[in-house]
C-alpha cells in the first residue's frame, strides 16, 4: 500500500513542515455509534491501532471491564493501555 504524505506544521521550523502519512478515517462502534471523520497517522510497523480513551467511550467500548496491559509508548516507555474493538473505515 502507498500513502500520500501530508504536510504538518513543524513548531521548530515553520518554513519546513513535517511530511506525515495521514489518512482520513471514521470510527464505528459495535453499538452503532459513528464518530465524525478524523485523521489517523499510518504506522506501517504497528501491530495494533491505538485510539484515545475519549473516542472509546463515545463508541460505547466498555474499558471498565478489561484489565490494563503494559505497552511501549513513545521512546519505548511503558504505559498502561486497554484492549477494545471498533471498526475503522478508511475514507479515500
Extended strand count = 6
| Secondary structure: helix percent | under 10%
- N-to-C SSE string, H for helix and E for strand: EEEHEEE
The total number of structural domains is: 1
Computed over alpha carbons, the radius of gyration is: 15 Å
Secondary structural class: mainly beta
Outline type = globular
Average pLDDT, rounded to a whole number, is: 88
Tally of DSSP helical segments: 1
N/C terminus separation = 13 Å
Residue stretches low in confidence (pLDDT < 50, at least 5 long) are none
Strand fraction band? 25-35%
Largest sheet descriptor = 4 strands, antiparallel
Mind sketching the topology for me?
Layout: E1 5-8, E2 18-28, E3 38-41, H1 53-58, E4 69-72, E5 78-81, E6 87-91
Antiparallel strand pairs: 1-2, 2-3, 2-6, 4-5
Task: Report on the architecture of this protein.
- The chain has 92 residues and is mainly beta.
- The chain has one domain.
- The mean pLDDT is 88.
Key descriptive features of the protein:
mainly beta, four-stranded antiparallel beta sheet, 1 helix, globular
Short description:
By secondary structure, the chain is mainly beta. Helices cover 7% and strands 35% of the residues.
Amino acid at each position: 500500500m502507498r500513502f500520500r504524505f501530508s504536510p504538518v506544521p513543524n513548531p521548530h521550523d515553520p518554513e519546513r513542515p513535517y511530511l506525515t502519512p495521514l489518512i482520513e478515517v471514521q470510527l464505528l462502534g459495535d453499538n452503532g455509534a459513528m464518530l465524525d471523520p478524523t485523521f489517523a497517522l499510518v504506522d506501517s510497523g504497528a501491530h495494533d491501532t491505538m485510539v484515545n480513551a475519549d473516542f472509546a467511550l463515545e463508541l460505547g467500548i466498555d474499558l471498565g471491564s478489561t484489565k490494563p496491559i503494559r505497552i511501549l509508548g513513545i521512546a519505548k516507555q511503558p504505559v498502561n493501555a486497554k484492549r477494545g474493538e471498533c471498526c475503522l473505515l478508511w475514507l479515500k
